[in-house]
């Protein structure tokens, strides 16, 4: 089994090579999904170069802030990238899109091993993008709620979304894809991925449904008493987008960091 990082970037963590992984780093997308009903997921963000090239997903959590995967920001500068909200079909201008530039990229300080999680694969794979001007919140563009601290969101049916590849040999999807998917107990996920899985991960698996290259950074949302909440951000998975659990970064383990950043940003 090989690991793939679910972005459309060419990126290889150095410690992977050191551990003699067979890895392949790609750009993310969902295999086994279906077209979303337009604007049902108004927090879904496309992260692009200024050329319009989509390489990762994200989740709007506030009019000024998008949450994505830290590995999507490897070697990126704020002025090289933009975010698009209110997007449905990437190639079509639907007049609902809002384009914003980025003023700051803030990577989780524990990403890639400043702590005991060093031995896990891509620990704390999260980054916050600050928009230079806030998006206008409307029917097409809405933030996703953050979860409660003490909910595990395991053993549920939740939803993944993204414009990533629809199969290992397919292209990225032009229309945003969604799929229902089961969330696993981490101990069950370890049957497949062993010690790469730590408490800050949440694994998803449903036969025939797999996030794939181009889906990295995109959201896993679960229905809760207050509506949909953000349970995870797409991090990595099987290189062939095959029939194995995919790994998200668990938001409940990162709430303190998220609040530290966005509650002290000068916008609130
Ligand atoms: C966003 O950044 C691009 C590239 O630097 C620039 O051309 C464009 O004018 C910027 N847009 C806004 C609204 O600042
Ligand atoms: C945590 O869980 C307990 C019981 O399961 C519940 O009563 C409490 O409200 C929860 N706290 C938060 C912050 O969600």
UniProtKB/TrEMBL annotation:
GO terms for biological process: proteolysis. Pfam families: Trypsin. Residues 30-263 form the Peptidase S1 domain. It comes from the Eukaryota. Keywords: Disulfide bond, Hydrolase, Protease, Serine protease, Signal. Residues 1-18 form the signal peptide. One of its GO terms (molecular function) is serine-type endopeptidase activity. Belongs to the peptidase S1 family. CLIP subfamily. PANTHER family: TRYPTASE-RELATED. This is Peptidase S1 domain-containing protein. It comes from Potamilus streckersoni. The lineage of its organism: Eukaryota, Metazoa, Spiralia, Lophotrochozoa, Mollusca.
């Amino acid at each position: 089994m090989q690991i793939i990082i679910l972005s459309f970037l060419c990126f290889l963590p150095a410690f992977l090579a050191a551990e003699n992984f067979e890895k392949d780093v790609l750009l993310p997308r969902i295999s086994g999904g279906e077209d979303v009903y337009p604007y049902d997921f108004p927090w879904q963000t496309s992260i692009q170069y200024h050329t319009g090239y989509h390489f990762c997903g994200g989740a709007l959590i506030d009019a000024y802030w998008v949450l994505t995967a830290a590995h999507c920001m490897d070697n990126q500068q704020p002025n090289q990238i933009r975010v698009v909200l209110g997007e449905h079909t990437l190639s079509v201008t639907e007049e609902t899109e809002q384009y914003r530039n980025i003023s700051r990229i803030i990577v989780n300080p524990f990403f890639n091993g400043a702590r005991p999680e060093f031995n896990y694969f891509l620990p704390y794979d999260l980054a916050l993008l600050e928009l230079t001007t806030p998006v206008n919140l409307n029917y097409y563009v809405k933030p996703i709620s953050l979860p409660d601290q003490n909910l595990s969101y395991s053993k549920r049916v939740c939803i993944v979304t993204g414009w990533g590849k629809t199969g290992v040999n397919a292209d990225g999807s032009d229309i945003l894809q969604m799929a229902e998917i089961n969330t696993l107990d981490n101990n069950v996920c370890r049957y497949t991925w062993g010690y790469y899985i730590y408490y800050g991960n949440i694994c998803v698996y449903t036969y025939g449904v797999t996030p794939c290259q181009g889906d990295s950074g995109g959201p896993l949302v679960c229905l809760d008493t207050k509506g949909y909440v953000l349970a995870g951000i797409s991090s990595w998975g099987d290189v062939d987008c095959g029939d194995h659990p995919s790994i998200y970064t668990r938001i409940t383990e990162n709430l303190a960091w998220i609040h530290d950043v966005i509650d002290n940003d000068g916008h609130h």
